[in-house]
Amino acid sequence: MRKLHVSLSALVVAATLLAACAGGGSSGKLKVGLVTDTGGVNDKSFNQSAWEGVQKAAKEFNFDAKFIESKQPTDYEKNIDQFATEKYDVILTVGFLMGDATAAKALQYPNIKFAIIDNAYFPTKGAKVCDDTKKDCYSDGGLKNVTSLMFQEDQVGFLAGVVAAGVSKTGTVCTVAGMEIPPVVRYVTGYESGAKWMNPNAKTLHVYIPSFVDPTKGKEVGNSMIDQGCDVVFGAGGNTGNGGLLAAKEKGLAAIGVDVDQYNTYPEVKDALVTSAMKNVDVAVYEYLKSVNSKTEKAGIVTANINNNGIGLAPYHDWNSKVSDAVKAKVKEATDGLIKGTIQTGYKP
Fold it and tell me: What are the pLDDT digits (tens) for 116-162?
């Protein structure tokens, strides 16, 4: 009897250990982790919206959810490792700059589902990404456990540019941009193309700043372009872009937010915000996690655009009466043209 007792105890311990190590941990709940980029989870735009999508899915589908903030790029891989060590089932990473780290870790942890916002796999074109053994490598894509959540920022940037040129009194509009990476370039290109579609004589200014977390520099650059005649500032660079929005607010000028409806997330500048160029990151993340819950998720690229309502302009809020019916009609015309493909944004990959 004693031997049987020991054996049964061992079985119980083994079963407990197996449950703890299995996906979802001992609670049985799916575990979802979000790794932010250096902007932090309360950046009033990009990361914040992603976390809201995770929270909505966690509540609806009874997931366990947690985020880790990256303070610097060297944190990306170790933050992913932390979730992997804690037996997370799904890891979402936020932003183009996390592409290489996500690819390497997805290869290292093939049984974990990954999703990344704004990187459409390849990491660096032509580069090999290998696991720690250096035996298992891939080049330019081919990851079977990663879904890329992409957005056509140039389309919503175009609409923002139409609004900007429509309300501008000087005919000069500008962008305080973050790093010169594809999603930001799409925003800037679309914005300037939209402004010139609206007003062929419009003057456009932009500056790329190599940081998403430098509102002081953003404000400085914004003021510089305001001194050159810009009276509508588009902040397309996380907290750096927010500095540009603040510059416009303090000068009594117009501003356009980015990624989310910044009227709600950045109330300090809401009086200046005509609208925001939204990419519905929260919706994209929620829909991805919904597919994970139903076991229908697929590796590859999922693109949010104007045709599937994955992007769009925020309401005009306090500016609704100041944006003329003529400008609103041009926004509708531009929207229809983008949907039909008769209007191009000017962005070329």
Answer: 999 887 444 445 566 555 555 655 456 889 999 999 999 999 999 99
> Does residue 170 sit in the same domain as residue 193?
yes
11 part of a folded domain: no
- Whether 101 contacts 109, CB under 8 Å: no
Q: How far apart are CA 338 and CA 194, in angstroms?
A: 11
Phi-psi map region of 140: left, alpha, beta (phi>0 left; psi -120 to 50 alpha): left
> Same domain for 245 and 140?
no
262 and 193 share one domain = yes
259 lies in the same domain as 335: yes
Complete edge-to-edge strand list for the sheet that includes strand 203-208? 203-208, 172-177, 232-236, 254-259, 273-279, 311-313
Structure tokens at 235: 């902040």
Please state the pTM of the whole predicted model: 0.82
- Give the number of domains in the chain: 2
Q: Which residues contact 104 (CB under 8 A, 6 or more apart)?
A: 77, 129, 130, 131
Domain enclosing residue 42, as ranges:
27-151+280-311
Residues 165 and 274 in one domain: yes
Q: pLDDT of 66-80, one tens digit each?
A: 999 999 999 999 999
> Domain check: are 232 and 134 in the same one?
no
Residue 114: helix, strand or coil by DSSP? strand
- Rounded Cα–Cα distance for residues 248 and 213 (Å): 18
The residues with which 117 forms a beta bridge, in sequence order, are 94, 149
Q: Of 121, 128, 170, 157, give the one whose Cα is nearest residue 275.
A: 157
